[in-house]
Amino acid sequence: MDLENLIVADSEDQDGQKVDKRSVQPQVWTEEQEICILNGLIKFSTKKGIDPLKHKKRFFSYIRGSLAVEEEFTLSQLNDKLKSLQKKFKNNLNKGKGISTPHENRLFELSKKIWGDDIKSVPATTEANIEKFGELGENKIEQVLEQLGEAKRIEFKKEWDELQILELKLSVKRAELVQFQSEIMLDAMMKKFATN
């Protein structure tokens, strides 16, 4: 989608203070824009490697170049829309019944990619289990390990050390891949620059 007219317009009041012209009126979003926002959340997260919901200003800058809107919108309006989309997703998830329109179904599927893990990762009985069994913190682990024999403790430590080594190897492999791809991109850009 093209977005040519998506800069937030500010003006100054009589005292020289910046005032957002549209801060009073809520933004009306089209179905296409709602889909674009959700796709933008997914693409931003994939491209930048950061959570757009924790870096909303950066996401705002990114998405405002992707939406076709007749009127400009503010960060606050975008935040309101994100909250509304998340609330709609949670409500549809809790209802458990079918979605009525193809658009609502598309919104639900995209929302599931964004917020689905948050919903299913919290069991309903978590608080009751904590009260009943206590939290599995470092103190509990240490208490349990002290009750095990020396041989079992050494075995656990060895397994954890092996896991840590595998994680470090994976981290090195990832860094090598990033370096390799960066070198390819640099070569391509240098060739393009040399031909211009």
UniProtKB/TrEMBL annotation:
Domain (Glabrous enhancer-binding protein-like DBD): residue spans on this chain: 27-116
GO BP terms: regulation of DNA-templated transcription
UniProt keyword terms in alphabetical order: Coiled coil
Keyword field contains Secreted: no
Residue ranges that the Swiss-Prot or TrEMBL entry lists as coiled coil: 68-95
Family indicated by similarity: Belongs to the GeBP family.
One GO cellular component, as annotated: nucleus
InterPro entries: GEBP, GeBP-like_DBD
Name of the protein this chain belongs to: Glabrous enhancer-binding protein-like DBD domain-containing protein
Annotated organism of origin: Citrus unshiu (Satsuma mandarin)
